[in-house]
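Task: encode each sequence below as structure tokens.

Item 1
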Amino acid sequence: MDNKKEALNSASEGMKGLVDIISSKVSSGQSQGKELFSSLSKNLKGSISDKSERAADFINSLKKDKIRNLERLLKVDKKDLMASNKKNFIYNNESGKMIIVEKDIWGDPSTVTIKDSNKVELRTVKFFKNRPYLFPPFSEKKINGEIVFINEKEIWYRNKNDVTVVLFDDETPDFLNINLKEVKGLKEKDVLSYIEKYKMLYVDKKLNNLLITERKIEIDDIFKIRSRYTIYKNDNGDYKVLLFDEFKTLEKELVIKKIPELSETAMALLFSKDIVEYIISKGYAFENFKQSGNYIEYWQDIGSNKICVMRVKI
């Protein structure tokens, strides 16, 4: 019995010692865990703070770039700046013009008021890739999507299934809505080409009537629309080139087997009136013209040699 008690006491003391060791380890682990968590927390907060500061610096840098670019467009600079606050910038240049640039809620330039002795002009500011553009005032409330293209006369807003093109031929904006559901299979560059052709047919009612109404040409079959020529694909696989005068009157039609690989400027030269007449008089094939640097060239096999028989500087 005494041996049993002794054994039990010994076991009890052993268990107590084990519990103490485990408790000590757990306590030590908890302390180390707290220290590790505290260190990680500090590092994480520091990293987030550092990234936030860098993001804020980057945004501020972009804002400054936008302002400098807008100043260049308005032909003012820092020395012309009279006042600046959270809502606007006020400039007064040497010519006596006062220019007030209003900011939006994000601090970006949104409208410009130009005052001189004769008139007051109000303009909406739009940026695309940090480049500023000025337009007559218009409302974006019914427009969805992001801006995907801008030039001095138009803005394209792209949504998933539609595009809104805002055209500015005068002070009154014209809104063109284009449904993209029918062109879902097209690549992105082909979608942009489709929008451009749709827009040009909308603007040029005479060409729209000729191609769409009279000749039943699909927009997808139109290769290029320019002021003096239009190219579209025929059902048999060749191409029809329509040549126009300065009044948009159809002057001549050509048929070519394929479209020559030329730059935009070179193509315009190839299908200009005088060049077309000369090429026809010589019996040269339009599709065989090639571009070499700043020239368009036509080569022929004469005997055993290949000779350039026509060369025109672009």
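Item 2
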Amino acid sequence: MAIGLQVASVFRLWVIARDLTRQANGSGQITLSVLKQALAGFGVRYGRSHFNTLLRNGEGLFWNRDRERLYLHGYQRLSAQLTDLALLQNPDLVAENRPGGYEVYLCPTGSAEQWHAMCYAGWLASRHDPTVSRETLSRLFSRSADTLRKWERDHLQPYLQIRHNYAQCADTAHWPYPNLPAHTGSYAAQTREGVQLRLIWQLPNSYRTRRLRLHRHRGQGRKARRMSNHRLYLMIKAHRKTSSRSLFGFGETGSHRRMYFASARRLKQYRKAHADALNHVMYLWRGENRHGHALWEPSPDGYAETRSCERLPFQKERQAYQEGATYRATV
């Protein structure tokens, strides 16, 4: 949320200062001289003018101060203030990224870009290695997809493993939803009935973090989450009185239905427990292909028609196209 609100550099000062006071007497107070020494120890170098600018930008939000000392705001208070600020500037940051999860141990060293990248990896770790689209990540961090890729390539190689997901479908008869994705393509598969064309499209990536440790206790996280939920609820309630349109582009609750299932049994159990399960796409795990890509099949009933390694090698696939391979059903 701090990156999306353009206060990540100030947030780094608060994180370092908070850790120093925790290691000392836990008073929440720190002298500016001690903070400067700690920044130098972490390799974070600011000129006098830049340092004073960060102190001014954080005053009232991250801390109060006098000439020699910072009085840090607590986690719960800071979460509430960031939530209020996000609701004014960009409500999507709160609806899909409410504070209150487990804290993550991060290294604050390096440049501002490196710190942004570490916060990005920490967010993924706190969400327990999610499957999330680039579009959503770009919206949450207020950065382009190219910038996120640059972070992953230049700074997060030791910390982040990205798995590319694809959906494959036997034919349009097995897609019981209104429209196929716009980026749907095709591939040639070796089936029991011979070579047939099938549908394929890319899904959001899965992000697996490593070497990042979560704190085992949530601390004040639950209180911060309840406070954030209450503020979000009040804003939605006020908005409904003046407009019939949704406040957020993806729904007003910020909740997510389960879409990916490791086994047919789990999918069937979910469908049985949720009456509205058929209103959204459910994907069944089919395994990994020879390139290491994860393959899923849309399956509203838990039954699968495709296999993970059924796609022909590229040379044979090209030959199948030339010979006029067709779909089992008309597209």
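Check on item 2: Residues 80 and 219 are 15 Å apart (CA to CA). The two ends are 43 Å apart (CA to CA).
End of task.
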